[in-house]
């Protein structure tokens, strides 16, 4: 099929998907476009990369060791504008934002320590810029969860991002190989779709795939919805595209994470698991334990080889060994998102023999940048976040099983990818799962305080710090 005809068909398909899933009763603020643009760019390519893709010269050498230090003026302007716009929105929603921040003090503490690392970083200004972008991730999560209808905003965000990026990825992979495919150092074509590498495409498919599965399950149970069938069909088509992209990109980490987190999502909402918290703990432990055993304790490497990978995880174990040979503070790290800079980056590229700018392990990445203190703070975020996610699951399975799936998928995929980095789709959705769970618990606690005096939770919400704002207040 000629690419121009394929482009027309996929354009019609995208508009058709939006039509099929459109909910006229759903009301979200205009401010939701800010996190939508943030996620669209971070889930695909930066603005400068898109300009290069379509033949515009932005004077950016992506192979230079200075790219992570200097960045692109275009990207810097775009992200700065979004961060400032997000900050203005959150200030206007202060009554709803501050309670969420208080309930997520481990996340605040983590970013507080990250800010302090500016003082010992070899590149303090660059560290500050990276920290500001990391704060932007938190801002976008808070904007979605303080919207007029947080659940509706979550659905709309998934639709806006998924209905565009997933079909475009299929289109680019099949009909525009110069855009959707990339030649690796071993002279093999890899499918990258709208992203810049196959691992990023894998993350996109993993997190959106879980979202599509969640919507399909919820719509299947909503027997009274007159638009149920066409909306299920829309998300089923997208889920099929996700599975095709995972197969073509050969992103086995994301595929395995999707299977395990998706299984946990389905099982966790079953009566047996809802009645017993211990059963949920066993389920989560089994999912995460299998992943850890396959990677680090299966001496034969048979489980990894069954997934199409060698025991070195395509050279990742060599990278892990080499980065630990580099000089940096084991206590406080090199500074937030500052390890892969300057001479250190050049030395590592010479050691491993190819371009590299991440450790391909999220936990090791935190250790390199923030040391043992950073790892400890991340552990606190994990523990407290897990408690909130499990408690919220038992109170509201509609949103709780999605939060659980995202919470599980990110730590699993981070065993072989740097999933906790700023502007990373995995890190954004991981933070989202924790903050969303804390918000759900807060509303339950507030409702319990009135002891049934107000039957409508939305009415009580209007009297609390979670009062929905009017359209004039949010933008």
**What is the arithmetic mean of pLDDT?**
82
Sketch the major β-sheet: 2 strands, antiparallel
Strand content: under 5%
Rounded to the nearest angstrom, the radius of gyration is: 22 Å
Number of helices in the DSSP assignment:
23
Uncertain runs: 62-66, 297-308, 451-475
Q: Structural class, from helix and strand content? A: mainly alpha
Strand order of the largest sheet: 1-2
> What global shape is seen?
globular
Q: How many DSSP-defined strands?
A: 2
Q: Share of helix among residues?
A: 55-70%
Order of helices and strands: HHHHHHHHHHEEHHHHHHHHHHHHH
- End-to-end Cα distance, whole Å, is 44 Å
Helices and strands in order:
Elements: H1 3-21, H2 33-43, H3 47-53, H4 67-70, H5 73-92, H6 94-102, H7 105-116, H8 124-145, H9 150-175, H10 177-180, E1 181-183, E2 189-191, H11 198-221, H12 228-249, H13 252-268, H14 271-275, H15 277-297, H16 302-306, H17 316-323, H18 342-352, H19 362-395, H20 397-413, H21 425-449, H22 457-461, H23 471-474
Antiparallel strand pairs: 1-2
Helix pairs in contact: 1-9, 1-12, 2-5, 2-8, 2-9, 5-8, 7-19, 8-21, 9-11, 9-12, 11-12, 11-13, 11-20, 13-15, 13-20, 19-20, 19-21, 20-21
Provide a descriptive summary of the structure in words.
The protein has 23 helices and 2 strands. By secondary structure, the protein is an all-alpha fold.
Compact overview of the structure:
The protein is mostly helical and 475 residues long.
């Amino acid at each position: 099929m000629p690419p121009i005809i394929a482009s027309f068909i996929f354009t019609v398909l995208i508009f058709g998907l939006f039509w099929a899933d459109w909910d006229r009763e759903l009301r979200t603020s205009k401010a939701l476009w800010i996190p939508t643009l943030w996620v669209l760019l971070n889930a695909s390519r930066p603005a400068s990369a898109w300009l290069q893709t379509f033949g515009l010269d932005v004077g950016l050498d992506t192979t230079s060791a200075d790219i992570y230090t200097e960045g692109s003026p275009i990207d810097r302007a775009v992200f700065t504008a979004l961060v400032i716009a997000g900050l203005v929105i959150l200030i206007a929603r202060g009554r709803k934002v501050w309670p969420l921040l208080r309930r997520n003090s481990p996340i605040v503490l983590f970013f507080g320590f990250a800010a302090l690392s500016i003082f010992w970083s070899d590149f303090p200004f660059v560290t500050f810029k990276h920290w500001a972008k990391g704060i932007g991730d938190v801002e976008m999560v808070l904007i979605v969860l303080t919207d007029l209808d947080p659940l509706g905003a979550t659905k709309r965000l998934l639709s806006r991002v998924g209905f565009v990026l997933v079909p475009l990825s299929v289109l680019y992979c099949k009909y525009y190989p110069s855009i959707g495919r990339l030649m690796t150092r071993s002279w093999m074509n890899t499918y990258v779709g709208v992203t810049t590498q196959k691992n990023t495409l894998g993350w996109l498919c993993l997190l959106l795939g879980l979202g599509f599965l969640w919507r399909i399950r919820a719509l299947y149970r909503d027997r009274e919805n007159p638009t149920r069938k066409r909306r299920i069909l829309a998300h089923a088509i997208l889920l099929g595209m996700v599975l095709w992209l995972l197969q073509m990109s050969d992103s086995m980490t994301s595929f395995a994470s999707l299977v395990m987190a998706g299984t946990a999502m389905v099982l966790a909402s079953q009566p047996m698991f809802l009645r017993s918290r211990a059963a949920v703990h066993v389920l989560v432990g089994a999912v995460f334990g299998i992943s850890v055993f396959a990677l680090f304790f299966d001496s034969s490497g048979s489980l990894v080889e069954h997934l199409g990978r060698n025991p070195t995880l395509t050279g990742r174990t060599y990278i892990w060994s080499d980065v630990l040979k580099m000089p940096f503070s084991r206590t406080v790290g090199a500074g937030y998102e500052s390890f892969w800079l300057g001479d250190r980056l050049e030395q590592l590229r010479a050691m491993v023999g190819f371009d590299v700018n991440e450790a391909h392990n999220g936990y090791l990445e935190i250790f390199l940048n923030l040391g043992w203190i950073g790892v400890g703070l991340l552990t606190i975020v994990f523990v407290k976040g897990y408690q909130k996610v499990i408690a919220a699951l038992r109170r509201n399975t509609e949103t709780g099983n999605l939060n659980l799936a995202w919470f599980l998928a990110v730590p699993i995929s981070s065993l072989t990818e740097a999933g906790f980095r700023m502007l990373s789709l995995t890190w954004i959705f991981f933070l989202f799962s924790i903050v969303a769970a804390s918000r759900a618990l807060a509303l339950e606690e507030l409702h319990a305080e009135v002891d049934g005096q107000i039957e409508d939770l939305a009415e009580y919400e209007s009297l609390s710090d979670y009062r929905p704002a009017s359209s004039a207040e949010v933008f």
